[in-house]
Amino acid sequence: MIDTHCHIDFEDFDNDRTEVIKRAKEKLDCVIVSGYSNSSNMKVLELSKDYENFIYPTFGFHPVSSQKSTEEDLKTAHENILNHQKEIVAIGEVGMDYFYVTDKALRKRQQEIFTGFLKLADECEMPIVMHVRDCEKKAVNIIGEYDNIPYFVFHCYGGSFKTAKRIMDMDNAYMSFSTMLCYSKQHQDLIEKIDLNYILTETDSPYLAMKKENRNEPANVVNAVYKIAEIKNIDVDTVDEITTENAYRIFSIKCATSI
Ligand SMILES: [Zn+2]
User: How far is ligand 1, taken at its centre, from the CA of residue 94, in Å?
Assistant: First the structure.
């Protein structure tokens, strides 16, 4: 099993990060930690060096914070991606958030920034992990123009099934589902209909815990895998195998425990 998206570099984990990673190691093949900002990207890289073959980094720029950023910040983000291309397994998380951002001009700015990262991913031929909220259809229209991006991941997908069908039709785009599955009827309905071959699992830790007041952690991804098996009425091993293989393929990694 893999947690394909979390933020264990956050200060929420400063007091017990070692234990959190130890618990993840007991249950999972590997963990992908997604950079959120320029400083987060550097922390994520450091973590991946401390836990080689278990923690894999992606470098990104979160859409909600990105709109407040300067051109200089963005330039740094692009440069860091180029300089660490060989160490990171994808670009992300980047994207667009229409839930938090309602202002028209700010939405436009988000899109410009997102497009900048798409162009970079296209040039570098790197997979991209996207945070897209309440604008999934628009994102599908935008990403369709980039032919050299090997894989697209919609992290914590919450769009319609109609858009999910378009994502599956692309054949190199995936939807990631979190532990939110355990309590969200909307996500449960989506899982029932989406083909396992386009599904990934994640926690988005420290967010989206089973109980909203709690802190989430990567080991909890097991709950998402079990829930998918229950909803689709297939055995846990099959869900584990297929979702893990999907992640290996997208991020070109072979985790230490499975070698
Ligand atoms: Zn995230």
Answer: 9
